Structures are given as C-alpha cells and as structure tokens.
Amino acid sequence: MHSERANGVARPRRSTRRSRSKNPEAPTEAPIEAPVEAPVDRGDGAATTDEVQVDAEILRLALGLTAGDAREIKVRLAGVGGMAGLYATGSELFEGILSRKACQRLDAILDLCRRLLVAPRWVRRRVDGPEAVLRMLGHELALCPVESFWVVHLDARGRAIGTTCVARGTLTSCLVHPREVFALALRARAASVVVVHNHPSGDPTPSAEDERLTERLTQAGEILGIPVVDHIVVGTSGYRSLGIPCERIVTTRSAES
Questions:
Q1: Is the domain of 83 the same as that of 135?
Q2: Residues 213, 238: one domain?
Q3: Who's near 185: CB < 8 A, 6+ residues apart?
Q4: To which H or E segment does residue 19 belong?
Q5: Does residue 65 register a pLDDT over 60?
Q6: Lowest mean pLDDT among 5-14, 119-128, 140-149, 156-165
Q7: Quick check: 103 and 94 in contact, CB under 8 A?
Q8: What is the rounded distance in angstroms from the CA atom of residue 75 to the CA atom of residue 71?
Q9: Within this chain, do residues 224 and 157 fall inside the same structural domain, yes or no?
Q10: pLDDT > 70: percent of the chain
Q11: Hey, is 49 helix, strand or coil?
Q12: Beta carbons of 97 and 84 less than 8 angstroms apart
C-alpha cells in the first residue's frame, strides 16, 4: 500500500477506486405485490369478489373439476359479472379450460335453471275429502295390476304439495313400512298426509291388514307431528275410507289458524 508523509507521519493513501455493482445501470426494483381484487359495487347489479369466489367453487364441484381450475373459472366469471353473465353466455365462457363433457354438463345445468325460472307455478289443490284424492290418483290406481301404496303430502292449509309411490307389491299384498311413508313427507315439510292404496281385485273393502297398517301409520304420524288424515282403498268398483274424514281435519286446522 502506498503512503504519503505529512509532518513526518506516514498516512495511508486513499484509494480512488469506487465499488461498483455488477450492473451499475440496472434500476432498483420494488418488490412485486400480488394484485388485490376490489369488490364490485353492488349498486350496478354485478357480483362481488366474494360472491364470484363462491360461485366458482360451486361450479368446480358441480362439474367435477380440480381445485386448480377454480382460479381461471373465477377470473372469467368476474369478467362477465358473475352467474348472471354465465347464464347469458353459456359454456362458451369457459372455452379452452373445460373439456367437451364438462361443457355439455354445464349447458344441461343452465337449461334446468331456465326451465325452473319459466315453468308455471303449480297451483296446489285443496284436499277436502276422498274425492279430491281420487281425482289425482284414482284412475291410475284402479287399473294398476299389482298393489301400490301412495302418499299425498299436504301443507298446513290442507292443499296437496305432491304425491309419491312408496311401495309396489304383488297381486294380493304390498309391504309398507312407516319410515318409507314419512321419509319424503319430512323432506317435503308436509303438515299432514293422506295414504292411498289399491286392490287389484277391484273390491275396495279394507282387509284386517289394512286396518292394522292404518293404526301403525296413525301412531307414527302422531309421534312425528305429521298426522295421517285418511287412508283410502281404491278398487274398480269404488273406494273405502279407513281414516278420519279429510273435511274434518281441514276445518279444524283452518279454525285453529
């Protein structure tokens, strides 16, 4: 190292060489941050970021896709304003990221949604007696070649919510258990039920087994809070009722409400 003398004292010479970086012309770069998606104002009818995220996850599950596909689905959904935009564009929105089978499944789901939106609302008919039940099921049951057991679900005003066949048997018998009778009634939020079955012989006279079944179902309905309004046996020569007349139940319920 070179040194200089000043007043007889040796001092080290300062180096004039400056430390340089490997690339002195490269500008200093700020750390890259992930983009933050701001929620869309609900006032314009568009979906928020959280809603788009949920919609993308539901679509992923419905179409059987992997978790990695959800991000691209979310991006494209956000670009059209959420599910309302998908409803208008259809599976073309996901062209390039969905398989042909997944696109067909998505279009089928959207078609079901359209049918649900435009379908006329079914008017519930009031069941005020056995004749009202026969207007719904009588012709089908009277001509059935084997015994079949049906349940009519009623709402709190005694109107029919829907009907379902819970068992089919043989020419002379049909095995029925209370759990099948009330399973769909619970799911349908029925307030009460009417049970109906046919006698292929044409004679609607109740058998001893019919009477025992009526008692079992009545007891089960009382426990579940879904009373059995009536049990009707249908044949080609007419019908017989084993339960409490429907008009009495409906009148009592209307008076209580």
A1: no
A2: yes
A3: 151, 153, 193, 226
A4: none
A5: yes
A6: 5-14
A7: yes
A8: 6
A9: yes
A10: 73
A11: helix
A12: no
24, part of any domain: no
51 and 113 together in one domain: yes
pTM of the model: 0.56
Supply the mean pLDDT for the chain. Answer: 77
**What's the domain count of the chain?**
2
Q: Report the alpha-carbon distance of residue 191 to residue 127 in Å, rounded.
A: 13
Asked if the model's pLDDT at residue 90 lies above 80, the reply is yes
Buried b (16+ CB within 10 A) or exposed e, 174-188: bebebeebbebbeeb
- pLDDT of amino acid 40: 43
Residue 37 resides in a domain: no
Which of the four pLDDT bands, split at 50, 70 and 90, describes residue 62?
A: confident
Cβ atoms of residues 73 and 56 within 8 Å: yes
Q: Give the mean pLDDT of 158-164.
A: 89
The length of the chain in residues reads: 257
228-235 and 192-198 beta bridge pairing: parallel
Contacts of residue 85, Cβ cutoff 8 Å, sequence gap at least 6: 77, 79, 93
Mean pLDDT of 99-103: 88
Joined tokens for residue 99: 């398989």
204 and 233 Cβ atoms separated by less than 8 Å: yes
* Pairing mode, strands 148-154 and 9-12: unpaired
Nearest CA among 60, 103, 56, 100 for reference residue 80: 56
Terminal-to-terminal C-alpha distance of the chain: 108
Rounded Cα–Cα distance for residues 120 and 10 (Å): 106
DSSP H helices in the chain: 49-63, 69-80, 83-89, 100-118, 130-142, 178-187, 208-224, 246-256
